[in-house]
Structures are given as structure tokens and as C-alpha cells.
Amino acid sequence: MTIEAHGPVAVATTRKAAPWVFYLCLGLLGLAVVAAVLADWLAPYDPSATDFSALYQQPSAAHWFGTDQLGRDILSRVIHGARPSLLGAIALLAFATAVGVLIGTVAAWKRGWVDTLLARVTDVMFAFPGLLFVVLVIAVFDRGPATAVIGMGLAFAPVIAKFTRSIALEEMARPYVDAYRLQGVGSVELCVRCVLPNLFPTLIGYLVVLFGEGLMSLAALNFLGFGAQPPSSEWGLMVQEGRGGVIQGIVGPALIPGLVIAVVVVATNVVGVRLSDKLAVKA
Amino acid sequence: MNDVVRVDGLRKAFDATRRSPGIVAVENLSFRLGKADAIGVVGESGSGKSTLARMLVGLTRPDAGTIEFDGRVREWRERGRVARLRRAKEVQMVFQDPYGSLDRRLTVEVALRDVLRRHQVDSSAADARIAELMDSVGLESRLLASRPHQLSGGQRQRVAIAKALAVEPAVLVLDEVTSALDVSVQAQILALLTDIRARTGVSLIFVSHDLAVVGKVTDSILVMYRGQAVEQGPTSDVLRRPQHPYTEMLLSSAPGPGWRPERVAELRAAFAVAHDQ
């Protein structure tokens, strides 16, 4: 199965992976979640504790991933960064889903001018680079994690709206929807109680793939300094702070959080595709 | 005699604009249906029979004409829960596609209970009613816990019939209900519907392309061609002495004893001439 996410972010096309790849990815995702939940117990050091006697250390037994420009332990920072990074992506997706599913369902249900209006609005949003849109939102409101999440969520919503609309239209053409109508089910109940629950399996698989995109977009935003602020160890921010060392040939502080982002994004894509296949209930 | 259904001058055109009349799906169609009677609406694809079925149940709004159930004219402007539930009791429909006409998420029991709850059957009475419905469509009660994908086509169609009957409608529209089923299951479903009609007094409207199938279970037949009723009368008369060349053509299109393909072509040509005149 192929899922393509056209939108403010890159196109993600994923093939079905071999079982062991799926379990490896599931394990890596699990690891990220465990890190986010148990950061205080897992991290060997305080993520903000500076040590000016140990700047830019190479990986060693004391510091597995080395230290950054302030002598902070990179492993501890990566572990502590899991929480803001993952929570940010979850919040972003939750917000975008609430807005997108609402718009998509209403468009599919009402058709006519409502559908056309919503299609044009989402088209305009599509034409606008997502990142630029978020920067605008941040320019108007305050910079910070919440603004970044809401701005990015608004940029993601049209993608989800389009997707929801197309699967909702297909679903509403099925005879069981007519059968519900004939039983006397009203339009709102029909959408909310009868059609939407049947969309969830398809939608959830798609959202898991979008989660990777969301994580990456949010990291990019944080890298640009529009979201999380120091001393947070959000992964995108860590890449940005580690940038200075790259010029001096010290790539670790920027590369390691970057790799972590890449691994989590790839893992969610693999898991998401498998999940959407599994959830697609036989009709 | 008191008619349960009276249809007068029904008309529906699709994609009509100011400049073009559009595609006329149903034109000036009228018929009557008495209590516990069964009528067959027969025609080839595109004859307008499915549009007629959808108009009867209220899924498609006619451009002109009236539909009466038990002397009450259907009002299209009427909205709200009370009107919806009353309409549901007037007429129900079973669809052609047994794979798509059930909500794949719900077990048979949940689906039936949902219908009963909507029509204010309290939960203690619902158990008995569900058992009764399952029995009347010939399904074992162990299938109550099954979801649609665990059932065969025939079983699903029985569930769809049970769901329609749960509302206790006066009229049941059956849109090609047996087309997707194999022949032995077809016969079972037809026998079941005849039995249900005898027991409950529900009036049946069989919409089908298959004159042979409809002929077995109806009292009267309405033959549709290009949106119009070209022949209408008691089933035995229509089958034995078809008045319209199109009906004759439908009759001889069905492969049976003495069937010859060239005869169909002959009739088709003869019919085309008759129709153009």
C-alpha cells in the first residue's frame, strides 16, 4: 500500500516493509516514547548542567554521545528532548486533525457551495508554503511552542481535510448510508455516529504517517528559532545549537539529534503504513 | 380497495438545465399497490427502475408527480425527527449490494438493536423482537455476534431484510435484491420474501431486470422502458400474453428452453421499429 501526503511538507511514499523492519521500527518508536515518559530516570545527567571543563567531548564511557558547546551531556539532552518533540508533534496533529476532519466531513456532507468554498480555501492553503504560513502566524502572535504548534497545525489541516473529504465521499456513496437514512437517521447523527467511525481506520493509518511529517516540520521550525526556546532540549533546537560546532569540524552535537529525528520519522512511516493496512477492516 | 401506495405522474430528469431537458430517467409514471400485494418493476439497465425505487423511498426527489402512502401525500419539505421516523415506517428498501448495504463495523445484533432503539422499542422488548426477526428471515441466533464480513452474501441480504422489517414498514422496496446472489440462494430469498409478505401483510415492490424472477413472486408487473411504463398488468397476463414488443423481447432474452440468440436480435429490431413509430 502506498500513502502519499501532498501538502506543506515533502511527499512521503513508503513501501510495505519486511516484518523485521516493522518490529525494529516499532521498537525504536517504543524507545522514544519510553525516553519521553521516563526521561528523569533514564538520563545520566541533568540536561541543562553545563561543564566548561568538558566542552565538545568525543563519545566516551562517561558521555556516550559526547558533550556540546556548553559541556552538556548530549545523550541526556536527547532523552529529555523526546518529550517536547513528541508532545509537540502529537499536539500539532491533534489540532490539525480536529480542524481538518471537521472541514473534510462537512464538505463531503454538504457538497454544493460549501464544498466549493472549502476546496478553494484549502487550495489557497496548499499554494502557501506551510513554513512561511507558520512564520506569519508567529509574526502576528507570540513566538513559542504553542504558537508553533497551532500555526503548523493550521498548515497541516488542509491536507487532512482533503483526505477526509475524499474518503468520506466514498463512504457516503455506500448503500448502508442510504439504509441509515431510510431508518430515519438525521444528517448530523449520520455523519458523526455512522460515517465517521468507519473512516477512523483509514484515517489513523494516514495520521501516523503524518506524525512523522509533523515531527520533522516542528523540528524545522524550532531549528529556525520560532518554537521551543533555550534551555529546552527539543531536537530541532539542539540541531540549531550544535550548528556552531560543525564549522569547527565537530559534527556530533548537531548530527546526533538530527539522526534521532530522522530515525523517528522513518520509524513512524513504516509503522503507520503497516498500521493502516492492519486497521482496514474487511468490507 | 384501499391502496397502500398510489403513484401519480412521477417524473425525474437528471442534469436538466434551462437549455437542455437533461436525461429523463422517469416520465409520467403511475401505479397503485394494494395491501400485501406485490408488484414487479422490470426493465433493462437505464430504464429508470432504480430511479423510481429511490424516489419511492425518498432518497431522490421527483421533479413532478405525487407519491402517496396510505392516503398521505409525501411532502418533501417536511423535516425533523418525527417526519423522518414516520417516513421510515411507510417504506423501507433492501439494496442490491449485500456487501455495501450493512455497516461493516456493527455486529448483526448491534445493527438490529440500533434500528429498534431508534424506533422506540425499549430494550427489554428488543431482545424478543431481535429473536423474532432473526427467526423470520431464517438466520440462526448464533450469527447475532457476527460482523458483515463473516457472513455470506445470502446471509447479509437476510440481515438487510431483517433490518428493514425491524421498522415494521407498510411497503418494502427490493432493488435487485437477488442479482448479486447465486441461483440457489436467489430462490431461498424469494421464498423468504413471499413468506414474509403472507405473514406480515407488507406490500412488496420488486425492482429487477429479471422478468423470470419477478414473475414468480408478484401479482402484477410494470414494464419500464426509457423511463416510461410500456406495459402494466397482472403478472400472468404479462408473462403469457405480452402486449408490448419490449416485454416480449425481455421475455425471450432470458435463456431458457427453446432460447435462440437470433430470435432476440429479431425482436430487438422489430421493437426498435415499433418504438420509433
List the helices and strands and how they pair.
The complex is a heterodimer of chains A (283) and B (277).
Chain A: H1 19-37, H2 39-42, H3 74-110, H4 112-127, H5 130-140, H6 145-172, H7 175-182, H8 187-223, H9 235-247, H10 252-279
Chain B: E1 3-14, E2 23-34, E3 38-42, H1 49-57, E4 64-69, E5 72-73, H2 81-90, E6 91-94, H3 108-118, H4 123-136, H5 153-166, E7 171-175, H6 183-200, E8 203-208, H7 211-217, E9 220-225, E10 228-234, H8 235-240, H9 245-253, H10 261-276
Parallel strand pairs in B: 3-8, 3-9, 6-7, 7-8
Antiparallel strand pairs in B: 1-2, 1-4, 4-5, 9-10
Helix pairs in contact in B: 3-4, 3-5, 4-5, 9-10
How would you characterize the overall build of this protein?
Chain B: It holds the Pfam family ABC_tran. Chain B: Belongs to the ABC transporter superfamily. Chain B: InterPro entries: AAA+_ATPase (IPR003593), ABC_transp_ATP-bind (IPR050319), ABC_transporter-like_ATP-bd (IPR003439), ABC_transporter-like_CS (IPR017871), Oligopep_ABC_C (IPR013563), P-loop_NTPase (IPR027417). The complex is a heterodimer of chains A (283) and B (277). By secondary structure, chain A is mostly helical. Chain A has one domain: MetI-like fold (Orthogonal Bundle), CATH 1.10.3720. Chain A is built from ten helices and no strands. The N terminus of chain A is likely disordered. In chain B, the strands form two sheets. A six-stranded mixed β-sheet of chain B has the order 6-7-8-3-9-10, with helices on both faces. In chain B, strands 2-1-4-5 form a four-stranded antiparallel β-sheet, with helices on one face. Chain B is globular and about 60 Å long. Chains A and B meet through α7 and α8 of A and α2, β6 and α5 of B.
